[in-house]
Structure formats: structure tokens, C-alpha cells
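Researcher: Structure prediction, please.
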Amino acid sequence: MKFTKTIVAIFNNVLLGITEQNNRESTIESEKLLQHKEFLKSIFEEERSRLENLESKTSQLISQTSIIISLASIFIPLLIDKSSELVIYLKIFLLSLLISTYLCYTLTIVYALKNYNLKKFKYSSPDPINVTNFRNKSVDDFNRELIKDYSYSIGRNQEINNTKATNVIKSYSCFRLANIFLSVLVIIVCVSTIFKGEDYYKVQLMHPIEAEIMKPVKLEYDTLFKRVHAAQKDSIKRKDK
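Model: Predicted structure follows.
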């Protein structure tokens, strides 16, 4: 009997040890799953914050470009008036700068608006239906499914955000180049207007015309008297008639 009790006690201790080992491993596995889930969740939130930052920069580029284009449109008539008396080569150069400026501003808006293509940029997130599907399963199973969703969503969202970041970089490059062109354009017109001197406005006659002042006509007294007397006679005759 003692031997049997000893065997049973040993067997129970072995089972207890195995159970404790399994529980310990299960606890470690649950902690790992929880840590993995929290780590992936933090990356997912970072990508969401990155998206908000990209959208903010995109909106700023569009609004700033629109304001500058409006101000430049007001400046164009003054620019044309000031450059009307410049040499033809300088006019062509200024016209090229003006076209390049508006082209770069247009590209700025075009690249920025690409980030608002909702059909192309479809973001991913964990499926809420998992809460219902895994309600009768363990928490570890739910966390495993959530980790899969986070992993897919992070890869998908990073790809979309990288594309949007590329559009923002291109838009900003065009915006900066357009500002440089516009600054050069304004500086050239101002300098040419200030330093072209007073002689530029003088009118010089290439072939001056000399005008002769005619001598006054001298009428003798007898001739003048005869003409006046004849005019009086004509007047008297008309009255008698």
C-alpha cells in the first residue's frame, strides 16, 4: 500500500509539474502576443500620425500657391508696363521666366492634388468584425488575429504614405523653384527700371527739320486805299438795288 501511495504521489507531482510548466508557457505565450500586439499598434498609430502630417503639408502647399498666383496675377500688368521699353532679348528672357514660374506653380498644385485621390489611396485597418467572430474563442486567438490585421494594415498604409510623401516632395520642389523664378523676375524688372537713367526717356530727332519764318507781306498805301474804296462802292450798289 505504501508503495502504491508513493507511486501515486510521484505521478501526481509529475502531472502537477507538467501542468505548471504548461501554464507557465501559456502565460509567456500570452505575454508575447500582447507585446507584439502593442508594438504593432504603436507602428499603426505612427503611420496614422504621418498621414495627418502629410495631409497638413499638402493643404498648406495648395493654399500658399493659390495666394501667390493671385498676387502674381495682379503684378503682371505692372510687369508688362515696366518691360515694354526693354530690349527684345530681355523681354524674351523675362517671358521665359514668367512662363516657367506659372508652370512650376501649376505642377505644385497638380502633385499636391494627387494626394486627394480617394479611389487610389485606400487605407487598411483591423477588421471590427473580429470582435464578433472571436467572442467564443480565447483572448490569445483574438490577439493572433489582431496581429495579422495590424501587420497587413501597416504594410499597406506605409506604401500609401510613401507615395503621398513622394508627391509632397515633388510639389514642394516645384513650389520652391517657382518662388526662385518669381524672385529673379521681380529683381530684374526693378533693377532695369531704377538704373536705366534719365537719358532713356529723351526723344532725339534723327533728321531735324529747319523751319523758315516767312517775311511779312508789305502793302503800299495806294493799293490798300484802292481796295477799300472798291469794296465800299460794291456795298453801295447792292443797297441801291
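Model: The CA atoms of residues 222 and 228 lie 10 Å apart.
Researcher: Thanks, that helps.
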